[in-house]
């Protein structure tokens, strides 16, 4: 691990053990004045030297803010060029997410996985046609892989994403249709086409919701794929949310289906901390319809600083057909830094 990575870990550890860092502190109770204290002149206060950890945190904040400004300015300039419009004051949600995850497994092997996720926001361009530039489209990621992905999901981030609809979208009541042309920002670049259909149902009495999304995509390298996802959310009680997630994905290369069924219970500890308990089943249809994995996860997520520095700790228990259903425990610890405005 590099010296800069160690520095970031130390700063994050300080934030973790001081959850109220950066919040306004309560005023200390005033001491009753006495004749002795009134008669004594106040001694001049010497400025305390700034600690090393504070200087390191200030450096991290300044670097993050500077690079976020450059990233958003670049996205705004490209958007204005493609749309042939002035984009100086247009909102832009381009972002870059850098993460580092360490996983400890039963075999005592530690896996360190750095990852960068980038997406260019083009709101003005999307008023004319839907164009997507990103390096890791989530629709092409297998649901079984997402279950073990320790990064925070887009739904847990601030900001919205501009959506462009196909011209015939209004012809089907309550359904939202979206067509996208895009390029994976990797080497070599991989162009793709996506068509999405989505619908949302609100439950009449208990505040629950059901979301369904069907995605058909084609990429030049990975070819054709098809995915259906059904999510049902139900508030259980104060600060508790139950979720059922069902996924069926078709891979044209293998001509096979992969199935995922998971149930989760979320507990919102406070504005900064979230706990999730999840059980999941993973299956496939080749050589026959069968189970491949059973999974249990406990996730602890915390905002270490504002809305751009995150920590996640995930103990996991996995029973896999490839391991003769032997228990395979693991522990992953991840940090994520988000560059955006």
TrEMBL record:
Keywords: Signal. Residues 28-41 have a biased composition (Polar residues). Residues 1-22 form the signal peptide. Residues 146-162 have a biased composition (Basic and acidic residues). Residues 26-51, 140-162 are annotated as: Disordered. This is DUF3187 family protein. It comes from Thermohahella caldifontis.
């Amino acid at each position: 691990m590099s010296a800069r990575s160690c520095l970031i870990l130390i700063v994050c550890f300080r934030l973790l053990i001081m959850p109220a860092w950066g919040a306004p502190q309560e005023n200390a109770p005033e001491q009753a004045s006495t004749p002795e204290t009134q008669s004594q002149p106040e001694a001049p206060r010497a400025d305390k030297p700034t600690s090393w950890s504070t200087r390191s945190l200030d450096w991290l904040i300044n670097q993050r803010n500077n690079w976020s400004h450059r990233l958003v300015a670049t996205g705004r300039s490209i958007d204005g060029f493609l749309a042939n419009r002035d984009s100086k004051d247009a909102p832009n949600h381009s972002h870059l997410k850098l993460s580092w995850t360490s996983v400890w497994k039963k075999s005592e092997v530690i896996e360190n996985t750095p990852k960068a996720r980038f997406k260019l926001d083009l709101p003005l361009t999307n008023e004319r046609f839907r164009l997507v530039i990103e390096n890791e489209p989530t629709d092409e990621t297998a649901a079984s892989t997402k279950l073990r992905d320790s990064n925070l999901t887009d739904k847990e981030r601030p900001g919205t994403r501009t959506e462009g609809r196909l011209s015939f979208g209004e012809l089907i009541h309550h359904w939202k249709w979206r067509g996208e042309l895009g390029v994976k920002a990797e080497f070599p670049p991989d162009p793709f086409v996506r068509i999405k259909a989505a619908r949302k149902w609100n439950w009449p009495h208990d505040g629950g919701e059901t979301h369904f999304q069907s995605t058909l995509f084609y990429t030049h390298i990975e070819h054709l794929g098809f995915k259906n996802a059904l999510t049902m959310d139900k508030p259980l009680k104060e600060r508790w949310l139950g979720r059922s997630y069902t996924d069926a994905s078709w891979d044209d290369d293998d001509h096979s289906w992969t199935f995922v069924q998971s149930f989760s219970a979320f507990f919102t500890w406070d504005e900064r901390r979230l706990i999730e308990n999840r059980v999941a089943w993973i299956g496939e249809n080749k050589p026959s319809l069968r189970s491949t994995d059973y999974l249990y996860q406990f996730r602890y997520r915390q905002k270490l600083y504002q809305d751009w520095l995150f920590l996640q700790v995930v103990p996991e228990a996995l029973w896999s057909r490839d391991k003769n259903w032997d228990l395979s425990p693991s522990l992953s610890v991840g940090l994520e830094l988000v560059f955006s405005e």
